[in-house]
Amino acid sequence: MTRIYYVIAGAAAGAFIGYLLRPSIWPIGQLPFLTVITRGANLRGMDLLLQSTAQQSFNDLLIGAVAGAVLGYVVNQVIAKNNKAALKTK
To answer: What's this model's pTM, rounded to 2 decimal places?
Structure first.
């Protein structure tokens, strides 16, 4: 059961890092969270030009979440392996 906690924590950390590292646009900077999480669906008028950046930002967030989940799973496996090895030596 603890494996899922490592995966969730890793996914959350990876998504947060992906969000922090999202691309920025020269005069505006980084897009707000609501725009990123909706992939720019809430943009209207001239702001529609920012939709591709919003989509890229969401993709970065998603890639970070997946990478973090995988890393969390690997960390859990390493810890479990070390615990089993420690129990065998006792």
So the answer is: 0.83
